Amino acid sequence: MYQVINPESLGAPRGWNHGMLAPTGGRVLFIAGQVGSDETGRVISDDFVEQFGRALENVLTVVRQAGGDADSVGRLFILVTSVDAYLASLKPLGVAYRAIMGRHYPAMCLAGVSRLVDPRAQVEIEALAVIAPEPGS
Q: By its UniProt entry, which SUPFAM superfamilies does this protein fall under (predicted)?
């Protein structure tokens, strides 16, 4: 759905893309930051990778409700309370990511923060998606 924009002068990205150009007529969906919580709003685990996976699943729950899927996501903004925990978990995070998003790699940003609103949350993921135009519109 997106046209991937990766200028050679910026180097080849790995596991993300520099830019994602949405199709004309797509509907923009802004997804609020999602943590690794269940339907009661409670964080499901103290495990970093499990929280990441659930937060990403929660993002896709919003996208699916709007009529999209993983390929609809054009941008992920990931907040973590420990960049060290993120770096130490790259392989299992990659497995969790691909199980949810497949081989779709949107534009991404990761930032370390001192804490999130929920004191148990270690990961929060905000997203931007474009839902394909409805047929006939």
A: YjgF-like (SSF55298)
